Amino acid sequence: MIPAKPTIFLLAAAVALASVPAGAAPAIWAPKASERLMKLPGNFLKKAVENDFTNSRLGVEMAETDQKVGLKKETLADLQAAVESADGDLRTELTHRFLVEKKRFLELMRDQQDLRRRRAQTKVSLYEKMLRKLTAKTRGGAPSRLALVANQKAARERFEKSAARIDAQLFRSSVTAESKYARDYATNLAAIENLAQAINAHPMNQAPEVDGRPVSQAEYLRRLITENEAEVALVDQERAILGFMAKLVSLDALALSEGVAETVALTDPQKTPGRLTSALDFFVAR
Amino acid sequence: MKNMIKTTVFATAILALSSNAWAGALENMERERAIMLETLLSGDIVASEKRSRGAISSARLIDLERMVLRDKSLVGKNTPLVRAAFENYDLTFLVHAAAEKNRSPLDHWMTEIGVSTQTILNARTGRR
Lengths: 286, 128
Description:
The complex is a heterodimer of chains A (286) and B (128).
Chain A: H1 4-16, H2 35-39, H3 44-55, H4 57-85, H5 88-139, H6 143-170, H7 180-201, E1 209-210, E2 213-214, H8 217-267, H9 280-284
Antiparallel strand pairs in A: 1-2
Helix pairs in contact in A: 1-5, 1-8, 3-4, 4-5, 5-8
Chain B: H1 2-17, H2 25-41, H3 47-70, H4 80-87, H5 89-92, H6 94-100, H7 105-112, H8 117-122
Helix pairs in contact in B: 2-3, 6-7
C-alpha cells in the first residue's frame, strides 16, 4: 500500500485544482433570432429552440456528459458498497479507488455545469434578441409612421362601419352591379374565415401560456429569460456545492494518506530509515 | 422524424411569408379617380356621356378603393404617396365617402375642397 501514498497526495492536489477549465475547444451552440423563429406559434418556440440545441455540438456534448455522469454514479455506488464490505488492505485499496472515481465524478459534474451554464446563457441571449426585435416591431418607429398607421386604422374602421350601408346604396342601381372582385372577395372571405377558425382551433397555434394563463409573445419571452437566468443562478450555486464536495474528497484523500502512513509506521517500525538499528545487518552479516 | 419536423417548420415559415399583396392598387386608384374627376369637370363632354362614364369609373373605383383599404402591404408603408392617401379619407376614397354622405362623387369632392353652390354664387369675376 506504500505506492498509494504519493498517488493520494497527487489526487488531493488535483481535486484542489478542479476549477481549472479543460483545455479542449468548447462546443458551440449559436442559435439565430430569425424571422422563422419569431413566427413560430406559442409554446412551439421553446420546443424549436430545445430541438436546435439537441442537434448542436453543445447539445451532443451535453448528452454525452450526462451519460458519463450516469455511468460514473453507478460506478461510485458499486465502489461504495465494495468498500463497506471489504477489510484490511483491500479496503484501503478500494477506498483509494473510490476517491479517484469521486474526483473524476466531480470533474464530470464540473463539465456538465459548464455546459448547462452555457446553454442557459445562450438561451437568455437568444430570447433577449427576440424580445428586442419584437419590441422594435410593436413600437412602430418614427412619429410619421405612427400617424400613418393611425390614419390607416381610422380609414379601415370608417369603411367597415359604413360598408354594408354603402353596398346597399351603390348596388341598388343597375349600372353599378356587384363586380367580379366583390363577388370573389366575399367567397374568399368566407373561405378565409373558415381557415382562420381552423387555425385558431389548432393545438399548435394556441397562445403561449404561463401557469395555464394565456400571455403575449413578449411576456412569454420574458418568462423564458427569467427561467434561464434562474438556471444560471442555480448552476452557480451548484458550483459552490461542487467546491465543497471537492474539498471533502481532498480531505478524505489526506485522511487516507495519513491512515496509510500510520499503518506503515505501526506495523513495521524496523523499516523506518531514521533508526540506526535498521542498518545493523549491513555491519553484522559477512 | 427530424427531417419531417424540419420540413414542417420550413413550410410554416414559407406560408407565413407568402401573404404579400399586390402593390399597385393605390396608384391605379389615384389614376382612376383623376380620370373620373377630369371627365366630370370637362366642358367638352355632354352631360349624358359624363353620367355614363362617371358610373363606369365609380364602379371601378368602388373595387379599387376597397382593394387599397384591405391591402395589408400598405400598413405602415411610410412613403409620401401612402401618407398623402390616408391623410384625407374623403378625398382619397371619394366614392365611398360620397355614398356615406348621400352625395354624388363630384359634389362631395367639390365640398371637400371648399367649393359649394353658395361660394360659386358669391364669387365675382375679376382680374387677378
